[in-house]
Write a structure and sequence with these properties.
mainly beta; 11 strands
């Protein structure tokens, strides 16, 4: 379980905001390319079921490890973290850090947490490197006795995983609205010169329950 602290409510769900990172693994030896890959010739992503490719092709077909990082979460000991400079991952063995640092970010989801459906979204261009994603979370109250004998407890929030151990990405309502606008109204076309004006005339917020 990956614990989170920075959450909010969107679309009646507890969510954490993250950033998609697609890590390229450049290798000079035999390498597994089973899963998400990038073809340097066509500059496209695809899903491979080939367990190995030799080094003749490793400069062309590049294995991709997708992860999701947080820009705002505190990093604690034992958290998986991502290095922005060398694009590598590791386990935080040192000390807790308030928020992110200049080069380190807490990882909210590893590649094994990506479902085939999410990988297809990357291949189809619906999700791109650097995109903000909304991850569904779940909360639990753990009761415990306080130092004065009174009963208290702690509310723990985790990234929610389904029964296949995969993350659940919540569609970004505003992004869908923007895509709808782009399809229906080319940039700066009449009658609305910009997206803000279009929203005023076309978007109605859902009623609160």
């Amino acid at each position: 379980m990956i614990k989170v602290k920075e959450t909010e409510i969107q679309q009646n769900k507890l969510i954490a905001k993250g950033k998609l990172v697609l890590i390229k693994y450049l290798c000079d030896t035999w390498v597994s390319t089973q899963g998400l890959c990038f073809d340097e010739r066509s500059k496209t992503y695809f899903i491979s079921d080939n367990p190995y490719l030799n080094d003749q092709f490793s400069k062309v077909i590049i294995p991709i490890k997708p992860i999701i990082i947080s820009e705002i979460e505190d990093m604690e000991v034992s958290n998986m973290i991502y290095n922005l400079l060398n694009h590598d991952m590791g386990n935080n063995k040192f000390h807790s850090t308030i928020g992110s640092t200049q080069i380190w970010r807490k990882i909210l989801a590893l590649s094994e947490h990506f479902s085939p459906e999410i990988l297809k979204m990357i291949v189809n261009g619906e999700l791109e490197d650097g995109d903000e994603v909304l991850l569904e979370c779940e909360g639990f109250f753990i009761p415990k006795e306080e130092w004065d004998g009174e009963m208290g407890g702690e509310y723990i929030k985790n990234i929610k995983l389904n029964n296949q151990n995969h993350i659940i990405i919540i569609p970004d309502e505003w992004k869908e609205i923007e895509l709808e606008y782009i399809k229906e109204h080319p940039p700066f076309s009449a009658p609305y010169p910009d997206f803000t004006e279009w929203l005023k005339h076309n978007y109605h917020a859902p009623k609160r329950k």
